Amino acid sequence: LEINTMSLDWGYTDDNGPSTWAEKYPLAAGARQSPVDIDTSKATSDNSLVDREIDWSYPSNCSYRIVNTGYGWRVDTYGDDTALSGGPLSEVYKLEQFHCHWGATNDEGSEHTVDGKSYAAELHLVHWNSEKYSSFKEAASQPDGLAVLGVFMEIGNADNAELEKIISLIPKIIHKGQDSQASFDLDFGSLLPESKHYWTYLGSLTTPPCNECVIWTVFKEPITISERQLEVFRSLKSVGEEDAIEPEEGKLVKNYRPPLPLGNRVLRECGP
Ligand SMILES: NS(=O)(=O)c1ccc(NCc2ccco2)c([N+](=O)[O-])c1
Ligand SMILES: [Zn+2]
User: How far from 19 is each of 207, 261, 262, CA to CA, in Å?
Assistant: First the structure.
């Protein structure tokens, strides 16, 4: 019996991409899925969020490892001294990890879109409700368990210097499963936009198992990265070193889920 370990049970190709996920991951067909298109005419700026700005606090040494998940890069963080609060959040959430989604060309790649516009990439900072739950895993099964900050990334002329610290490590994790211990000093202020203007809604993980456990906060203002930096993301491979394939095969050129219907969910907006 030859088990073909090469075929992933989900991914971003025509035969295992987002339109097939619900076959193996039924939550993907839920009514509270992410991402969504942010229709700015539907966003309500009611007083429920007035003066409820998002407050984050991350020590620069909280990142300890970067790993190739097969779906992209992910930086794992020590959450102990981190905190995310305010905005739509009723408790303090701790940073678990951050990662990114991108496309094959610069006119796609973000997961959320704004009035139908895609950005070239989208950064996700994932937090969990450590006030109410005792672990990330437990929180990921609760409707208010996770809080993810979404930051749009657009192509600019300059490199993003902080992101460069991550990009410089990517050649060490080209293949799925590879990781690099890295306690780099990261100024998160450069990975988040200056403006705290955001949209927020109740959604899900944007990859299987698509748990509907995320309070999403998407910043309106993008940060910029260079084309070269984005090309480095695209050099990552979705297969392991042992998978004998052609050099050009298995490149992670896209890892974004297209938007799902907002349905009857409320989309709130806050900020100047
Ligand atoms: N693109 S995202 O920020 O929504 C996202 C997607 C998947 C997973 N994880 C997949 C997973 C497995 C069990 C529980 O969680 C995470 N995360 O873990 O923070 C975040
Ligand atoms: Zn993500």
Answer: 12, 14, 17
